[in-house]
TrEMBL record:
Gene Ontology biological process terms in this record: glutaminyl-tRNA aminoacylation; glutamyl-tRNA aminoacylation
Region of interest (Disordered), ranges: 1-23
Reaction equation(s) it catalyzes: tRNA(Gln) + L-glutamine + ATP = L-glutaminyl-tRNA(Gln) + AMP + diphosphate
Residue stretches of biased makeup (Basic and acidic residues): 9-23
tRNA synthetases class I (E and Q) anti-codon binding domain span: 477-553
HAMAP family registered for this protein in UniProt: Gln_tRNA_synth
Organism of derivation: Clostridium thermosuccinogenes
Top-level enzyme category: ligase
Keyword Metal-binding attributed: no
'HIGH' region, short sequence motif: residues: 53-63
Protein known as: Glutamine--tRNA ligase
Location(s), subcellular: Cytoplasm
Length: 580
């Protein structure tokens, strides 16, 4: 049937939609205000941002927020945004992550063009900066152990104590630092520290560590280095080397900003970048820390980083989310300076809004109950012309076959219905969507179990197309699938991965794993869908009438389609039923 093609998602023609490089009138948030001021005052004459992921995991929806802000602000101000891998921690990093991060950013619709960098590209320059600081007397090699350094650091209420190695001569520091680089000392035996202020009220300023000795294979520099710069030292200088103007990061770095500025000032650098912090995204029923997500993957609680229940970009993509819906979500949550938790329902709202007008609608019966229409002619098949999407008439129509034996949802029948049950029941008449009125005459049960296995109904031939022949009303309209034309498919229904709205909070040593929802995945094996779905491909999205939005999973084979439910519809039928 030629309708198959029409049923595929229109967006597939252009799967990688992009964000236009233009000023958006009325766009405003506190970061844009700062940028406006900076451009007006002449502090900067351009906008250059960066997105700096650490390649130690897959990107998640929180990163999508940061990506939309970093790339979005650059695009809106006629500027540029770099992608920079913050790969200063070799023991946790991997090229698998580097690749997935690029794929996810592109899929979201953003483009770093030829500006993909690695902090490790700057290891030589960073080393030179460190040497310069030593020569200025602003950095020293310290032999305290990690525990001692922590102990000497003091607390929020107590000042720290100076390291006994703090006043080494420049010559001795240079000698030791070069020998650290040359591999003469054991891992962890010495560090390079900035000489700032052990009494600073800001703990980050109490002679922070700049370099550590670590014999670890780096995914890009191999075994060239056995000392690695710390994030707080590498980050501002990487920003500087790339000509970043606005270095946008999350709130937990606010207390690191004085240190960020200290390195740039101490080195007398011109055209210094400016760090601006915003609140991280938190979502209900979701953990976002990469450490926790990694545990879910490693310990097999999910099928992988792209499990459709994961809040990762790859998980959301596999689930069926569109880049447009995710960008819309990031736009709606806005950019603020105070931490808050966003309701997961908002993300679902965004995908419903996006798919409502563009996902083809089809009929699919998830839990089939066989219905025989006794007075319908044996062997007769009718085809009804049905709109592919009434919200979008331009998508045209499809043909849906009808015959004597059909399937309806088990839930759409009750033998002893409560008063306001408007679906099918003995003696009760309903409309089959776009087909006919039918009335239930008889129920067939399995003799041994008592389970309802089949209904016998009659139809009114004058109600063709589902229209009332004489003005009489039916209160329920059911979706259905013709049995002889139906395709068997597998459907995976998802619920929140966690049962607790705030699963990451680890109170009294409780492990977040204990908050997992044991019913987050339900697999239905013999669902029946209309034949128009025959040519569906992984990634195609549909609305199954009354059942929600669904996306074809890559686990599909030639023999069997597998669908993921992206989100349910707001089911008013279920609401009425549950009130009884
Ligand atoms: P995690 O703490 O989960 O390991 P991270 O912050 O270390 O995450 P990075 O790879 O360093 O992860 O993050 C890259 C960028 O994304 C950073 O600028 C970071 O501030 C931002 N980011 C990370 N998580 C969120 C979030 N939940 N909301 C908004 N931005 C985020
Ligand atoms: Mg980080």
């Amino acid at each position: 049937m030629s309708n198959t093609a029409e049923c595929n998602n229109p967006e597939r023609k252009n799967p990688e939609s992009t964000v236009e490089n233009k000023e958006v009138p009325g766009y405003s948030n506190f970061i844009q205000d700062i940028i406006d001021e900076d451009l007006k005052s002449g502090r900067y004459n351009k906008v250059h941002t960066r997105f700096p992921p650490e390649p130690n995991g897959y990107l998640h929806i929180g990163h999508a927020k940061a990506i939309c802000i970093d790339f979005g602000l650059a695009a809106r101000n006629g500027g540029l945004c770099n992608l920079r891998f913050d790969d200063t921690n070799p023991s946790k990093e991997d090229t698998e992550y580097v690749e997935s991060i690029q794929e996810d950013i592109k899929w979201l619709g953003f483009d770093w063009e030829d500006r993909m960098y690695y902090a490790s590209d700057y290891f030589d320059q960073l080393f030179d900066f460190a040497v310069e600081l030593i020569k200025m007397g602003k950095a020293y090699v310290c032999d305290l152990t990690a525990d001692e350094i922590r102990e000497y650091r003091g607390t929020l209420t107590e000042p720290g104590r100076e390291s006994p190695y703090r006043n080494r001569s420049v010559e001795e520091n240079l000698d030791l630092f070069y020998r650290m680089k040359a591999g003469e000392f054991e891992d962890g035996s010495r560090v390079l520290r900035a000489k700032i202020d052990m009494a600073s009220p800001n703990l980050n300023m109490r002679d922070p560590v700049m370099y550590r000795i670590l014999r670890a294979h780096h995914h890009r520099t191999g075994n060239k280095w056995c000392i690695y710069p710390m994030y707080d030292f590498a980050h501002p200088l990487s920003d500087y080397l790339e000509g970043i103007t606005h270095s946008i990061c999350t709130l937990e770095f606010e207390d690191h900003r004085p240190l960020y500025d200290w390195f740039l000032e101490a080195l007398n650098l011109k055209n210094r970048p400016r760090q601006i912090e915003f609140a991280r995204l938190n979502l209900t029923y979701t953990v976002m820390s990469k450490r926790k997500l990694l545990r879910l993957v490693k310990e097999g609680y999910v099928s992988g980083w792209d499990d459709p229940r994961m809040p990762t970009i790859s998980g959301l993509r596999r689930r069926g989310y569109t880049p447009e819906a995710i960008r819309d979500f990031c736009e709606r949550i806005g950019v603020a300076k105070s931490n808050s938790t966003v309701d997961f329902a908002l993300l679902e709202h965004c995908i419903r809004e996006d798919l409502n007008a563009r996902a083809p609608r089809v009929m699919a019966v998830l839990r089939p109950l066989k219905v025989v229409i006794d007075n319908y002619p044996d062997g007769q098949v009718e085809e009804f012309d049905v709109e592919i999407n009434p919200e979008n008439p331009g998508m045209g129509t499809r043909k849906v076959p009808f015959s004597k034996v059909i399937y309806i949802e088990k839930d759409d029948f009750m033998e002893n219905p409560p008063k306001k049950f408007f679906r099918l029941a003995p003696g009760q008449e309903v409309r089959l969507k776009n087909a006919y009125f039918i009335k239930c005459e008889r129920v067939v049960k399995d003799e041994s179990t008592g389970e309802i296995v089949e209904l016998h109904c009659t139809y009114d031939p004058l109600s063709r197309g589902g229209n009332s022949p004489d003005g009489r009303k039916v209160k329920g309209t059911l979706h259905w699938v013709s049995a002889e034309h139906a395709i068997d498919v597998e459907v995976r229904l998802y619920d929140n991965l966690f049962a607790n709205p705030n699963p990451g909070e680890e109170k009294e040593g409780m492990d977040f794993i204990s908050n997992l929802n044991p019913n987050s995945l339900e697999v239905l094996h013999s669902c029946k869908v209309e034949p128009n779905l025959a040519g569906a491909k992984p990634g195609d999205r549909f609305q199954f009438l009354r059942m929600g939005y669904f996306c074809v999973d890559p686990d599909s084979t030639d023999g069997k389609l597998v669908f993921n439910r992206i989100a349910a519809l707001k089911d008013t039928w279920a609401k009425v039923a549950s009130k009884e």
